Amino acid sequence: MIPVTEYLKPETLTRLSNLEFIARLVVEGFLTGLHKSPFHGFSAEFSQHRPYMSGDSLRFVDWKVYGRTDRYYIKQFEEETNLRSYIILDISNSMQYGNPKITKARYATYLAAALSYLLILQRDATGLVLFDNQIRKTLPPKSIFSYLTVLLSAIEQQKSGTDTQISPVLHQIAEQFNRRGLIILISDLLDDPESILNGLRHFRHDRHEVLVFHILEESEQTFNFSGNIIFEDMENGERIKTQPAYIRESYRQQFQNYLKTIKNGLINDRIDYKLLTTRTPYDVALTEYLLKRKRLL
């Protein structure tokens, strides 16, 4: 039997086809290793009953009602936190870059699916926004478990977009979200860092909590290429022929400056930031989310 930790590896997940199964596998496999419940401190009040539907967790079945009526009913709750979560997923062409095992887009898809599963499991109303240089799809936040299928279907069926224009998209999204919530941005952030920070500040100005998962492929940091190589911009098609050895140190320095600008800017704006490469185990990303969630409760 393959251990759960093996399933958590991104290259292993690429061999699986069912996104809902992947999301459940990642989340439940991760939760198995926790000593304390990630829902500690979550407070909710009973609201009403509704008929059981396929996909609902049996943990919310009211067995006393079943004993009286011989019918399955689910307990519904009103979250005292009133938390609404929005997953904002970058589907621009630059996200298609990766190694032979997994692209940034595929990694981001699995991460978004796992977070959607976890949020819905916590009964948090969860919505989704797909974007490249504009908003391509928006799903409003809902907390019923059956909505998870809608979210995962949208994530799974998304098509690669065009170029990246993060800042105007973030401003547009912020204008639409008039109720305070948790904003989770998943992107490679390959755009002007100051404009990105400006867009994210819009959410903080509106008192949203913001969490950024920065997804990169390892070679984008190390630039460990050799020989004569033609580099092609995945968004505008521009090509440059060069020998990486001659520009490696300059590239690395500029890339580190870019990362420093992003990280320091987010810290100053009290925005949680996690840099992940496509080789990073998913439990790192989920740990970051749960720490954020714990501070919100």
> In order across it, which strands form the biggest sheet?
5-4-3-6-7-10
Order of helices and strands: HHHEHEEHEEHHEHEHEEHEH
Q: What's the number of structural domains?
A: 2
Q: Structural class from helices and strands?
A: alpha/beta
The percent of residues in helical segments reads: 40-55%
Question: If helices are DSSP runs of H or I spanning 4 or more residues, what is the number of helices?
Answer: 11
The CATH top-level class label of the largest domain: Alpha Beta
Overall geometry comes to globular
Regions with little confidence, pLDDT below 50 for 5+ residues: 34-45
Outline the structure in words.
The structure is a single chain. By secondary structure, this protein is of the alpha/beta class. It has two domains: 44-79, no CATH class; 84-296, Rossmann fold (3-Layer(aba) Sandwich), CATH 3.40.50.410. It has helices spanning 4-7, 10-13, 19-32, 63-69, 104-121, 147-157, 166-176, 193-205, 218-222, 244-268, 282-296, and strands at residues 44-51, 73-79, 84-90, 125-131, 135-142, 182-187, 209-216, 229-232, 239-242, 272-277. The strands form three sheets. A six-stranded mixed beta sheet has the order 5-4-3-6-7-10, sandwiched between helices. The chain is globular. It starts with a helix and ends with a helix.
Features:
297 residues, alpha/beta, Rossmann fold, six-stranded mixed beta sheet, two-stranded antiparallel sheet, globular
